[in-house]
Structures are given as C-alpha cells and as structure tokens.
Specification:
This protein is α+β, with helices and mostly antiparallel strands and about 475 residues long. It has 18 helices and 13 strands. A five-stranded mixed sheet has the order 2-3-9-6-4. Strands 1-11-12 form a three-stranded antiparallel sheet, with no helix packed on it. A three-stranded antiparallel sheet has the order 5-13-10. The chain is globular and about 70 Å long.
Length: about 475
C-alpha cells in the first residue's frame, strides 16, 4: 500500500511538472521581444547548473556558455521563477540606477526565513530605508574615524601576535576570527576570548552553513541546524538587551546601545538588525581579506609595493604609535590592491531583483514580475571591460580610478552600508601584515563560489617574521 501511494504521488508530481512545462512553453511563445535563452527543466529550470560550484575568479561555466550561445542578456528559469540574466555592464548599471522605480529587491523566501523578516537584504521601500539609515549611522565616516579605526588596529594586532612561525595557519579561519571579533565588539561589546564571544561565534558559524544550504527544515539538515543556531543567537542577544535595560546608566557606545537609545524599533526588529549587521560586517570583509592574502602570496611585486607604502607611513610615526585617519587616506596602492581583490575575487557575484513593470532595454522586453539577475562577476571578468581580466593587477587602478562598472558592493540606494568599513578593515590588516610578516601558501587552494565564496582547504599558509617591526 505504501509503495502504491508513493508511486501515485511521484506520478502526480511528474504530471504536474509536464503540465506546467507545457503551459510555460506556450505562454513564452506568445511573448514578443524576449531575449533568447533556455528555460531548462520543468519547475527547477536551470537552477542547478547556475549554482554549480565554480572558481570565484571565473565567470563560471553557466555564464560563459550562455553568453556565447545567447549573448550577454538571456532568459532562463532560476530559483523556480522566469528570469532575465544580465552579464551586460550597461544593463546592470541601468538596473541599479532604477532601484524601487523599475526594479525591486526580490530574494527567495527562504532567505527571510533564516535571516529574519526585518533583514535589510529582503526589505524593500520605506522599511528598508529605515533599517539602512540606522546601519549607515552606525558605520558613518565619523564612526569609522573615531571608533572603528582604533578598534580594528587592536584586533589586527591580537590576531597577528598569535601567529607562530613555521606552523600551518588557516588564513580563512584567521580572517573570519578577526572580523567576527571586531563586529561582536562593535555591535554588542563582546570581547575576544570571553566565553560569550566564543559561544556566539560557534552558533554563528552553524547559522552561516544553513544560509547556503537547501531549505529543508528537517532534523539533521544544515538548514534545520541553522534555524536552531539562529534561535540561540537571538536568545543571547535578547539576554544582553534585557540586561542593558536593567542598567541604563552604563554606556557602551556600540550598535545595541545606539538602537535602544533611539527607541524606535521593536524587539524583533532590533534583534534581526543586530544579527544582520553581524552577518554583513563579517562575511564580505573576511572573504575579501582571505582573497587578498592569496593573490598577494602569488604576486611578490605587489607585496613589495605595499610594503614600501606602509614603511613610508610607519617611518613618520613613533614606535607603537597608532594609525590615524590621515594615514589610512594616504594608503593609495593599498586601495588599488583592495579594488583589484574585489574585482577578481567577486565576493558578491549577483543580485536578486524583479521587474515592477514591463521594461524595454535595447529592444528586449523584461516582463513585469520576472526575476532579474544582474551578474557582477560577469562584468568584472569581462575582457571588453577590463584588459586581461583574469590577471591580478592592482596597478590597473592607477588609470581606472573609479569604474562605473565596478560594483563589488552593489550600488544605488541599496549599496552595501558596510562597504567603507570592509575596505578600512582590509587596509589596516594589510598595513600590519606586510610590515610584520612574509607569508607563503602551503599548498595550492582555490576559492569556490557556492554562492558565497569559500576556500576549499581554508587557504593554509606559513609565515616568517620580519625583524625590527615596530
């Protein structure tokens, strides 16, 4: 009986898929002006091929083959929805410039299920503006200058002083530890080495594994464990919030203090925002920093130019003297290096958007309600936009300065609020690293995008100290 029921269900599902596929095919044929492309399999479309793990420093097989076959703008079926995919620099720029007018953020519902319904990643309209304004205030230039800069330098020194020569170090783990400890300190005043910080980090990493897992909320799956870890994280934050409400005279100058002092968010909104700021402030910075260590380990000339720049800065300071904002702004080649790392490494590969109305672009129709994916990595690695795009070449930015097609943090009204913080973290880390250590890769490793970027082996490195470091 059980087998019969299972076979009947499978048959019904298959019939439903065939009907849906037939209906989709007919309706697509009736639409005029769609770009060329393939809708793939019934229901799932080409999602599996699109999400196939690929090297972060390539455009990926899916994008390459589809661009060759259909051009830089093509139709597909991804994440269960009819989709227009753009590898075209001008269309990507157009999409970003028309946020909330012609296009709107549209991430899969599973994202809000794990990040929370008040996550800035999924919010739109006024709700997004409200949350983003808080994030921008927390990471404003004055905050970066007066609060973050000194704290970043302290955390960099803590990490680098823990490194031992001739021992294998996971650069990826160390970058994650550095950025997590910094954000935990700035967001909720949890200090490195404290049990509550270690527990929060453990829960956070389990949570992160579920963000990229299949959304099956069944015991034993990564997604289920992530939901449980999210509950633990929110309980930790809730206890901290309750404790602060009982000691209102204690000032901490962190994000949680800023939110509670303003008092215009509910508890649920506050907890979702804090969790998402931890997510946003940790992921991009840690991945970009790890990528920089890999690219630099394979380009000694860039290391030498970096070291020369930072020796000049350090020569004007007393032993142990802290860096200033003016020092940071003078790190010109360092900014070239960061830009090139973000361009080649592609921490953010694409965005989820949907068309709010029928949009015509260069003769192609983007129908209302269709998902739209501007693929940034396709542009960053396009030989028509960047000469020798697969080559790590920080010096290219001497002439490029600002490229209108360079979008490592998105753009427009949804530009990542932590973009300047991420660049500051990487710059200060590189300052101390190149003056204190030489490093080399222990074995070949590559960064895979799935869709978040992560190194297969954690980027194992060995370091050797440079004498006479101040």
């Amino acid at each position: 009986m059980f087998v019969s029921i299972c076979l009947a269900l499978v048959g019904a599902f298959a019939l439903t898929c065939l009907i849906a596929f037939h209906w989709n095919s007919n309706s697509l044929r009736r639409m005029k002006g769609l770009p060329p492309g393939s809708m793939g399999w019934p229901v799932i479309g080409e999602t599996m091929e699109f999400l196939e793990p690929e090297s972060a420093t390539t455009r990926g097989t899916f994008i390459e083959t589809h661009c060759l076959r259909y051009g830089k703008v093509f139709k597909s079926c991804l994440f269960g929805q009819r989709t227009i995919v753009s590898a075209d620099p001008e269309l990507n720029k157009f999409i970003i410039a028309n946020e909330e007018r012609l296009f709107q953020c549209s991430y899969p519902s599973t994202i809000s299920g794990i990040l929370g319904k008040w996550s800035m990643l999924v919010l739109v309209g006024e709700a997004h503006k409200k949350m983003r304004s808080i994030a921008l205030k927390f990471m404003s230039f004055s905050k970066l200058k007066d609060f973050f800069l000194e704290d970043i330098e302290i955390h960099v020194r803590l990490i680098l002083e823990s490194w031992q020569e001739d021992k294998v170090i996971s650069a990826q783990d160390e970058a994650k530890k550095f950025t997590f400890n910094l954000m935990a300190k700035q967001i909720v005043s949890f200090n490195p080495g404290e049990p509550q910080t270690a527990n929060l980090m453990k829960d956070y990493y389990a949570f992160m594994k579920g963000v990229i897992a299949a959304p099956l909320n069944v015991p034993g799956t990564a997604y289920h464990r992530a939901i449980q870890s999210r509950t633990k994280i929110l309980n930790t934050l809730k206890r901290e919030l309750n404790e602060r409400q009982q000691h209102l005279n204690v000032v901490r100058n962190d994000l949680l203090d800023m939110i509670t002092n303003e008092g215009n968010l509910s508890t649920e909104q506050t907890l979702d925002l804090v969790l998402n700021m931890l997510f946003a402030g940790h992921e991009t910075s840690s991945v970009a920093l790890t990528l920089a260590l890999k690219f630099l380990a394979e380009c000694q000339r860039a290391v030498e130019d970096l070291r020369s720049e930072h020796k000049t800065i350090r020569a004007m300071k007393k032993s142990g003297e802290k860096l200033t904002w003016e020092d940071y702004k003078s790190m010109v080649f360092t900014q070239y290096t960061i830009n090139e790392t973000l361009r080649l490494g592609n921490v953010v590969r694409f965005l989820h958007r949907k068309a709010l109305q029928d949009v015509t672009y260069k003769g192609c129709i983007i129908p209302k309600g269709w998902k739209v994916l501007p693929v940034f990595c396709a542009v960053h690695l396009d030989p028509d936009v960047y000469r020798e795009p697969l080559l790590f070449n920080p010096w290219r930015w001497k002439n490029l300065s600002k490229s209108v097609y360079f979008t490592p943090f998105g753009g427009g009204s949804r530009l990542c609020a932590g973009a300047d913080l991420a660049k500051l973290e990487i710059a200060i880390f590189l300052h101390h690293l190149v003056l204190q250590y030489d490093w080399q890769l222990v074995e070949p490793d590559r960064a895979l995008a799935f869709p978040f970027v992560e190194f297969e082996k954690g980027l194992p490195i060995k370091v050797s100290k440079i004498p006479h470091y101040q």
